[in-house]
Amino acid sequence: MTASLYFSPTYTTRTVVETIAKSINSTLEAAGKPAGGFKSINVTTPMMRKETPSFTQDDIVVFGVPVYIGRVPNLIRDYFASIQGNGAIGIPVVVYGNRAYDDALLELKDIMQSNGFRCISGAAFIGEHSFSYTLGGGRPDAADLQKATAYGEEIAGKILSGYIIPDNLTVPGNFPYRFYNAKSSENKSIDIRKVKPQTDPEKCNNCGLCAMLCPMGAIDATNCAEVPGICIKCCACIKKCKTKAKYFIDPTYLEHKEILEKNFTSPRKEPEIYW
Questions:
Q1: What average pLDDT does the segment 203-226 reach?
Q2: Which of 8, 135, 156, 158 pairs with 264 at a CA distance of 20 to 30 A?
Q3: Which CATH architecture has domain 2-173+267-274?
């Protein structure tokens, strides 16, 4: 089986890893070496994480996560660490919003290797930043997906050629991993952990879509204006709301968003691949 496994609140990571995994699968099938078909495994919401997938040495898994402040999303990390590879070929992929991916790719690769995945390669792609419509706006775009398709073909080619998978894939990053912290305009650490989205009562029709999409189950499905749980600022509730009823007003959060947009909207970053 060739699988895409992803945590993707705003769908950018899903788009990248599914493109890579489908390309691997189709290339192997075209060469007469089927890998057991393609499977998409979405672990974004609490309901989707009620069961933990596991794999075998015959599987190929493209494992994707968005980058949150230079790291693997911390509140989901323990769940990721429970997914067993059992000798499966693994491809760690991180998707970031045109700032930097810092230690995220190294961290994801370490999680996978510790859990029995044989990491043949790793990559960092760009997707629209969860906070913004301008940071990595509209990405992954056609050029990104063309590179993702070519990357999948290259991975399949390596597998078909009998490529020897390294015991420890080398990717950028530092250990200990960076601390989760955002910065103010004065370059001071700021804490946005308690920041939660607001709801415009004139726009909200209480459809429940935001509650269904929330990766932390933080939004009250019976009253979508209430957010009693932990918010990780994935912004799925904001970007996917059909009536544009959700928004942030916290000045610290808005300042951080403005700094990111000012400093990292350009130049355009490109995907990076490691073997």
A1: 97
A2: 8
A3: 3-Layer(aba) Sandwich (3.40)
